[in-house]
Structure formats: structure tokens, C-alpha cells
């Protein structure tokens, strides 16, 4: 019996080297990625296989593998192990006796049943058994065995990352399952994306939107794009500036507990938010956080500040970091690892960001920043790559494992965030912190998906605020 091993070379067995009863074995476990990759390759998007909700209502009550995934394991044995390279599949007859479920470990056995010298065909019995000893596939395969012995170097297959932004969005939305929708003032939703994003967030059960703006314009956008506004409140005001002022008033009166920016300029909204006379200031400096789910990074990553504070001082960065740490706690990261970024990983008196990083780390040691683990200065590669950190000799619990990236200034942070979104297909949420309520501050170019993701974060923050207000001093 031949059992698969990851040898450097693949070597075939010719017809003359094979006897009846010879066999080969392959063992594979089914992962979620295998199902997705097989669906992408074949185009078979059967919802019983790819849709968890649909599968739960089906015969097997869970997601299962494509039947031909198991069959492909048989051809893997034939083509790479036994007989090996040069084998040609002539005929195959298979019976699928049981489904293969996520996590199942399948043992594939191919055994020679008959041999025909006149054409050098071989008929093999094929069996796939799961980890419980139950048969999932049974059948036969007829192959033309190699006539010459072949030995070839095993080709290393590339690593594949599946970037399923929709699945990642649904996973994020699931964080808010069981939470009541929050009243959100949507400021001037007078274009398709901002109005659609608010309505999609409402449909997802995240928010009850209060649409603030010129009513005729909002209704025209809805009518032109087939959007239904019957269930939603509209506060009619004349201009975008009036929309921002009215939204802040609703927050101050307790009629809403979050804001969402629509199709007005950021400065116009934030001028009302930061107004000392009638705004939404707190003792904490207002800052922005991008929450990003990057397919190639194993954990969520928060980038701050990339939208509000242009050139933050050391004192500003204390609040910026504390805001981000508090958000990390809300989304389930109990002790976030905070990397304070610069161009280098050593303190240099000529680079102000390295001096700030050193001071901030010492401030955390003294309890001036609480709830996270800080390290810096760190270059971007050292913050997100353990290998890069080790190469530089950096011994740190943060390096290579960062969950919060604190950027030196708005320009660098905005570039990092936009690069991850557009070049790495990151799912992005944007939120403003440090005000009385969370503010969804998306770009006018952002998609409805980004707006929904941001509403999830705002909903989680609003419920955390409710809990904090309900807790005794």
C-alpha cells in the first residue's frame, strides 16, 4: 500500500510494475475554503452548498461538500500517487452514499481490481471513508497506466486567499444580532449611496433612520431608484447646513443616539458637532477610527486617526489612542495591541513621531492610557508581520500582531486605509469617537456595504453607551 507523503518528486508506476491488490491511500479534511474554491472553479453555486441559511432548511440541515469534491480526491490519487504521473482516466462510476460535511476527514483508497494486458487498462475499486468509518463514496475507475516510468518534481501550488467581502460583511452584521435597532439621524441623504446605505442598515435591523434634509429631494432620489420610504421618518429642512444643525439638535434632545453623514461635506457636519455652544463635545478629543477586515490579515485592525485630526499633538494622540482602545473593548478585543507607527522602529530625535511613540508608551506604563498594550515606534511592516519584526530583532507582544495602528498624521493614515480598501479588498467601517454619540463618517464615494458595516459599529457603541448609563456609579 502506498500512502501519500509530501515528497519532493512524483514518480509513476508502469503497467508492468502493478499487480492486482496493490493500493494507495490519501487523507483529506474538508474546510470551508475547499467548498468555496470548488464552487468558484466549477461555477456550481448550488445554495444547498454555499448558503448557510438555505442549507439549514434542506435535507442535511448544514452545508455539505460538492459530490465531485470527493470524486476529485480519487483522481488526485490516480494522477499523483498510483499509478501516478502519465495516468489517463478512461471511465469512472461512483455512488455517493453519504454527504461530506465541514470538518470531515476523508480517507480515499484506490485498489487494483482488474488488469488488461492488451491495452494496459487497469480497473480500480475506489472508496472514500469518513472519520467515523462510514462510507461516503464507492465506485470504480478505469485508467490507462503509464507505459514509461516518469519522475517529475512536485510543483508547489500557490497559496490562495478567498476575499469574500459579502461573507465578511454578514459576519460583522451578526455581531449586532439580538440588539434593538438604534435611532440614527441620517444627515442630508440626498444621493443614492447615502440613502441606500441607511435603508439597507434599517433592513438589516441595525437602525431606525431619521432622514434629515430637503424632503422633495430625498423622495426624488428614492423614486428614481425604486426605494421605499413609507416606514421611515423624514425631517424636512431647506439646506445641508440646516440638516447638520437639526441632527445635532435631535441628539441633544435625546431623539437619536447616533449620526450618519449623508451627501454633505464632512466639514459642514463636523462644524455643528464640535460647536462649543450647541455641539456634541465631551472631555475627550474627537477622533476617527477605520475598522478594517483585511483578507490577508488574521485579525481585525483599527487605524486611527485618518479623517479628523490633521497633525495631532502628543496630547491629542493620548485621546486618539484611548478612543480606539475603548472601541476595541466594545467589539470584543479585551486588551488590544496598539502599534504606534513611524517610518522606523528606533527613537530618532529628528523624527517627531518616534519621540511621540516613546512618550506614549511610557504614559501607558504610568496609567495615563488604559486598557491596551502599547509599543512603538514601529514601522508598518514590523507592526503587522511577525517575520519582519523578528528580522529586525524586535521582541514585543505587539509587533507583528497589532490590532490598533496609530498613524503619525491624517495624510499617512488616510493613505494606509485607502490602500487596504482598494488594493487589498478590505471591508471598511468608519466611525467618529469622542463625541456624545457615535458618528458614521463615510466618504461620499463609499459603498452601501461600507455604510452598513459602519452602522454595525455605531449600533454596538450606542448599546454600550446605554449599558454604561444604566450602570450605577
From TrEMBL:
The MaoC-like domain, residue ranges: 29-121
GO terms assigned for molecular function: acyltransferase activity
Positions of transmembrane segments: none
Gene3D superfamilies registered for this protein in UniProt: Hotdog Thioesterase, Isopropylmalate Dehydrogenase
Protein source organism: Candidatus Propionivibrio dominans
Name of the protein: Bifunctional enoyl-CoA hydratase/phosphate acetyltransferase
UniProt entry tagged with the keyword Kinase: no
Sequence ranges assigned to domain Phosphate acetyl/butaryl transferase in this UniProt record: 241-458
Pfam families: MaoC_dehydratas, PTA_PTB
Record carries keyword Coiled coil: no
Entry-linked InterPro entries: HotDog_dom_sf (IPR029069), MaoC-like_dom (IPR002539), Phos_Acetyltrans/Butyryltrans (IPR050500), PTA_PTB (IPR002505)
Keywords associated with the record: Acyltransferase, Transferase
Amino acid at each position: 500500500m502506498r500512502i501519500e507523503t509530501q515528497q519532493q518528486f512524483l514518480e509513476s508506476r508502469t503497467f508492468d510494475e502493478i499487480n492486482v491488490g496493490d493500493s494507495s491511500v490519501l487523507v483529506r479534511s474538508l474546510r470551508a475554503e475547499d467548498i468555496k474554491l470548488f464552487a468558484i472553479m466549477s461555477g456550481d453555486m448550488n445554495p444547498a452548498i454555499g448558503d448557510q441559511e438555505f442549507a439549514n432548511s434542506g435535507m442535511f440541515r448544514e452545508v455539505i461538500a460538492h459530490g465531485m469534491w470527493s470524486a476529485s480526491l480519487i483522481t488526485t490519487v490516480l494522477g499523483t500517487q498510483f499509478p501516478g504521473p502519465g495516468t489517463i482516466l478512461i471511465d469512472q462510476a461512483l455512488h455517493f452514499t453519504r454527504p461530506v460535511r465541514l470538518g470531515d476527514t476523508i480517507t480515499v483508497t484506490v485498489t487494483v481490481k482488474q488488469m488488461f494486458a492488451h491495452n494496459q487498462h487497469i480497473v480500480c475499486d475506489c472508496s472514500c471513508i469518513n472519520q467515523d468509518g462510514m462510507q461516503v463514496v464507492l465506485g470504480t475507475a478505469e485508467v490507462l497506466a503509464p507505459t514509461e516510468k516518469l519522475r517529475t518534481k512536485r510543483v508547489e501550488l500557490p497559496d490562495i486567499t478567498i476575499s469574500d467581502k459579502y461573507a465578511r460583511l454578514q459576519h460583522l452584521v451578526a455581531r449586532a444580532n439580538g440588539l434593538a435597532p438604534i435611532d440614527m439621524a441620517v444627515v442630508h441623504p440626498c444621493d443614492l449611496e447615502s440613502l441606500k446605505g441607511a435603508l439597507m442598515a434599517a433592513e438589516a435591523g441595525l437602525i431606525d433612520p431619521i432622514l434629515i434634509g430637503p424632503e422633495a429631494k430625498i423622495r426624488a432620489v428614492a423614486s428614481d431608484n425604486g426605494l421605499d420610504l413609507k416606514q421611515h421618518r423624514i425631517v424636512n429642512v431647506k439646506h445641508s447646513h440646516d440638516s447638520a444643525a437639526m441632527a445635532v439638535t435631535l441628539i441633544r434632545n435625546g431623539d437619536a443616539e447616533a449620526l450618519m453623514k449623508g451627501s454633505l461635506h464632512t466639514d459642514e457636519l463636523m462644524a455643528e458637532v464640535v460647536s462649543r455652544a450647541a455641539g456634541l463635545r465631551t472631555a475627550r478629543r474627537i477622533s476617527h477610527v477605520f475598522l478594517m477586515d483585511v483578507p490577508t490579515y488574521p485579525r481585525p485592525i483599527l487605524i486611527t486617526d485618518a479623517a479628523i485630526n490633521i497633525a495631532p499633538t502628543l496630547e491629542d494622540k493620548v485621546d486618539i489612542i484611548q478612543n480606539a482602545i475603548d472601541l476595541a473593548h466594545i467589539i470584543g478585543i479585551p486588551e488590544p495591541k496598539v502599534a504606534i507607527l513611524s517610518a522606523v522602529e528606533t527613537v530618532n530625535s529628528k523624527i517627531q513621531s518616534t519621540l511621540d511613540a516613546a512618550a506614549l508608551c511610557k504614559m501607558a506604563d504610568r496609567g495615563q492610557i488604559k486598557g491596551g498594550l502599547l509599543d512603538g515606534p514601529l514601522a508598518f511592516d514590523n507592526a503587522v508581520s511577525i517575520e519582519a519584526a523578528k528580522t529586525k530583532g524586535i521582541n514585543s507582544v505587539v509587533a507583528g500582531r497589532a490590532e490598533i495602528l496609530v498613524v503619525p498624521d491624517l495624510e499617512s493614515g488616510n493613505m494606509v486605509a485607502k490602500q487596504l480598501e482598494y488594493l487589498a479588498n478590505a471591508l471598511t467601517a468608519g466611525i467618529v469617537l469622542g463625541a456624545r454619540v457615535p458618528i458614521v463618517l463615510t466618504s461620499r464615494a463609499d459603498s452601501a456595504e461600507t455604510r452598513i458595516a459602519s452602522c454595525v459599529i455605531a449600533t454596538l457603541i450606542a448599546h454600550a453607551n446605554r449599558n454604561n448609563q444604566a450602570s450605577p456609579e
